[in-house]
Amino acid sequence: MLVFIPDEEPSPKKLKKVIQFAQQKHIRYIFFEKLVNAKVATAITNEIHA
Fold first, then answer.
1. pLDDT (tens digit per residue) in 11-49
2. Who contacts 17 (Cβ-Cβ below 8 Å, separation ≥6)?
3. Residue 7 falls within a domain, yes or no?
4. Total of domains in the chain
5. Boundaries of domain holding 40
């Protein structure tokens, strides 16, 4: 499980790690808490085509 801290923007390195993990595991669904920045959620889902 990968965790984002709601009041901090994840680093580009962490975003890349999440995206690579999701692609390797063929993950198609991502769930985010309301406190996570919507831009982060959108960027990840767009990258993995979820």
1. 899 899 989 999 999 988 888 888 888 888 889 999 999
2. 2
3. no
4. 1
5. 12-48
